[in-house]
Structure formats: structure tokens, C-alpha cells
Design goal:
globular
């Protein structure tokens, strides 16, 4: 999700109004998956860099199209780490990764 810090023509946050404009986003790179050492079909962690995340306050990922979400922690910017053990993610079920970042 993008916060109100995006420019929308005719609207000055936090005022209420309507307008339109482009939504600025983040760019994910250097995605690294950590498999479980005891059962390598399980994914224990996913780490990545999130460019433009200098003020992101919350990041979550989904590996299954939005059914299950995992909370992430911001490390030294732009590093993000997401534990994927509760519930346990598996490599077979990880069909795509969706990242949601809130500023």
C-alpha cells in the first residue's frame, strides 16, 4: 500500500478530497531464499533489498497469491528480512511473491 505522501492533484495531505496522479513504488532486488537445514523443502526466510524504502514502516510478503502473509523487519536500509516459518512456507507452495510496503 502507498501512503498519502504520494502527490495527488488538488489534494494536500491529510486533507480529504479527490484527484488522480501516479503512484510511486518500491523496487525489490537481491531476493534470497533460506531453506530449512533440517527439511530443505521448507522456506525459513526470505531477504531482499527494497529501493525507495527509506521511510517504509511496515513490509509484508505473500508467497501464495495473497492467502498467507508474513511480516517483515527492516534492517539496515534497504535490507528487508521476512521469517516464513509461522505458518511454515514451502518451496512447492511459493508460486509468486507479492510485497506490500507501507510508508
Amino acid at each position: 500500500a502507498f501512503a498519502y505522501t504520494n502527490s495527488i492533484g488538488g489534494v494536500t495531505p491529510p486533507a480529504v478530497g479527490s484527484g488522480s496522479g501516479a503512484i510511486a513504488g518500491y523496487t525489490a532486488s537481491n531476493i534470497a531464499y533460506t531453506l530449512s537445514p533440517t527439511n530443505p523443502v521448507n522456506l525459513n526466510q526470505i531477504a531482499f533489498n527494497l529501493a525507495g524504502s527509506t521511510a517504509a514502516t511496515a513490509v509484508q510478503i505473500s508467497l501464495d497469491g495473497g492467502t498467507t502473509w508474513y511480516a517483515c523487519t527492516m534492517g539496515t536500509l534497504p535490507a528487508v528480512t521476512c521469517a516464513t516459518t509461522s505458518p511454515q512456507a514451502t518451496a512447492a507452495a511459493a508460486t509468486n511473491m507479492t510485497i506490500v510496503a507501507q510508508k
